[in-house]
Amino acid sequence: QMGVGTVHHIAWRAEDDQDQLEWQKHVASNGYGVTAVRDRNYFNAIYFKEHGEILFEIATDPPGFAHDETHETMGEKLMLPEQYEIHREQLEKALLPFEVRELD
């Protein structure tokens, strides 16, 4: 049950799509139900639960967070995957304001 102090999920990194597919096969061959690959816009992800019901995610590096903005402008504005653009106004109202600081 979700609540303060609980773990929602633990994410692991796959180098690329092939590495992720190998993990998907490994997870399934060890008796765990694993999802199909899901396109998360900035990465691809697969999911499975361990016996204690903690959700695990294995996500790829590509395509990466710089596929729709440059490294130089990253963080200047809220970037959303296409399927969430219809919720932009609602999401922006719910977000707390913050300032991006330049580090020395």
Strands across the major sheet, in which order? 1-4-3-2
Give the oligomer, counting copies of the same chain as homo and different chains as hetero.
single chain
Q: Which CATH top level class fits?
A: Alpha Beta
- Largest beta sheet, briefly? 4 strands, mixed
CATH homologous superfamily descriptor: 2,3-Dihydroxybiphenyl 1,2-Dioxygenase, domain 1
Query: What is the CATH architecture term?
Result: Roll
Helix content: 10-25%
Task: Provide the residue-averaged pLDDT.
Answer: 91
**Share in β-strands:** 15-25%
What general form does the structure show?
A: globular
The total count of strands amounts to: 4
Rg (CA only): 17 Å
Uncertain runs are: none
Q: What structural class do the secondary elements suggest? A: alpha+beta
Give the ordered list of helices and strands.
EHEEEH
Distance between the termini: 42 Å
CATH fold type: 2,3-Dihydroxybiphenyl 1,2-Dioxygenase, domain 1
Number of domains: 1
Alpha plus pi helix count: 2
